Amino acid sequence: MATNNSGQIKHFERYKGNEIIIAGSDDKPVVGINGVDIGVEIANPEPPLYTSRLTYSLYASPLELAREMIDIEFTLKGKGINFIKAVLKRRINITMLSAAEITKLRNALFVMKETGTYDKYAHIHKYSSNLGHHGPAFLPWNRVLCYKLEQELQNIDPDVVLPYWDSTSNNVDSHDNSKVWRREFLGKGGEVTLAWQGQDGKSHTWRIMRNKLNMIAIPIDASTFNLNRDSYPDFRTVIENRVHNASHVFLGVPHGDQCSFETATNDPFYFFIQCNVDRLWVEWQIRMKQKWLKDNPGMKYPAAQLSEDYYWHGKDEDHTWKTPPNRHNLDSVFWPWDGTETPNGGPSSVIPPWSTGMSETFTPRMMLNHHDWGYAYDSEPRSSNTGDSE
């Protein structure tokens, strides 16, 4: 493990299933990928540019260098640097979690909540507005949000993978008991209080407000929508309105956390809903792959939509934000990971970059292939899981 002179790690993250550790000093950085020192060199002092004996290119930071090496290895599908992993972690239906997996997920969420790490997601959603809703970026933006939360959980316990909640299926056992709404998992309906003994030795509680739901109900009638949509806009609209929105309404109306932008992510089921939406996007992509392969090998984000600006605040009747910043185009850089403010949020919506000393760049184009980010779904055909070693 790479550490700096004081024995501390300056930056740690999981990127596409790989562990990156950055240590050392600014003039002598030490970077490890999966425990292997990649031998970083400074090729230019002002501004500093970084390279390695394993690459001929120059990068603006050691982190960008490490990420690019992982990106290249994924592109090579395992034919390059042998310490880069291309194994995909698998997100599964929440009803299929074992007791041990539930315990691991709960405990990791509790650590995030205890340290305040989880609450920053409520801050993000408070100011997300149309950045992550009502336009083409709805799917890729929420893919980033779930990916970042999953990274946080895996930094606590590398075995944890976000599950998805399929709100269109029957979630009861053979005795008509809910397999989802359980006290030993994340509570039932109404007012829920989760309690645990923290790492600091103190008792902690987490208060979640939900609708007093019918615990064996199927929130969404699957017959009201289908995935056989020829265009991305049509697919995105039906999934957002009939699956995503309906799931939040089921949990939030009339007084639950998911009724408000400010509190929606306080309920962890927010992320399980988003994972299911992401899973359905994957399923649609697989269905459309052969049809679109010739004209649009990306098969995900049609070019016809890219010239339209989808960004404005709901109160802005004149659509004054129909000029940049636009966050929905194919190469738009997503807030908040770029460290900027949102137009309707002002300075209070600025969130410090989550990488050490730099912002992170995520765009719709980067998020089009979920395998690039180190995960797959249990509902995918195994043959579609490039790099899956199972």
Report on the structure:
This protein has helices spanning 62-76, 99-115, 120-128, 138-156, 232-252, 269-292; strands at 11-15, 18-24, 29-33, 36-37, 40-45, 48-52, 55-59, 89-91, 191-197, 203-209, 375-377. It has 390 residues and is α+β, with helices and mostly antiparallel strands. The longest helix is centred in the C-terminal third of the chain and has 24 residues, at 269-292. It has 2 domains: 11-76, 2-Layer Sandwich (protein ne1242 fold), CATH 3.30.1880; 89-384, Orthogonal Bundle (di-copper center containing domain from catechol oxidase). It is globular. Mean pLDDT is 79; it is low at 1-6, 293-299, 302-314, 319-325 and 384-390. The strands form 4 sheets. A 4-stranded antiparallel β-sheet has the order 1-2-3-4. A 3-stranded antiparallel β-sheet has the order 5-6-7, covered by helices on one side. It has a two-stranded parallel ribbon with strand order 8-11. Strand 6 (48-52) and strand 7 form a beta hairpin.
Which characteristics define this entry?
four-stranded antiparallel β-sheet; 390 residues; 2 domains; disordered C terminus; disordered N terminus; 27% helix; three-stranded antiparallel β-sheet; alpha+beta; 6 helices; di-copper center containing domain from catechol oxidase; protein ne1242 fold; 14% strand
CATH superfamily of the largest domain: Di-copper center containing domain from catechol oxidase
- The helix tally amounts to 6
CA-based shape = globular
Mean pLDDT over the full residue set? 79
Helix content: 25-40%
What letter string, H or E per element, gives the SSE order? EEEEEEEHEHHHEEHHE
CATH topology of the largest domain: di-copper center containing domain from catechol oxidase
Span of the ends, CA to CA: 27 Å
Strand content: 5-15%
The biggest beta sheet reads: 4 strands, antiparallel
Which CATH first-tier class of the largest domain would you pick? Mainly Alpha
Structure summary, number of beta strands = 11
Question: What is the CA-based Rg, rounded?
Answer: 21 Å
Spans of at least 5 consecutive residues whose pLDDT stays below 50 are 1-6, 293-299, 302-314, 319-325, 384-390
Query: Structural class of the secondary structure composition?
Result: alpha+beta
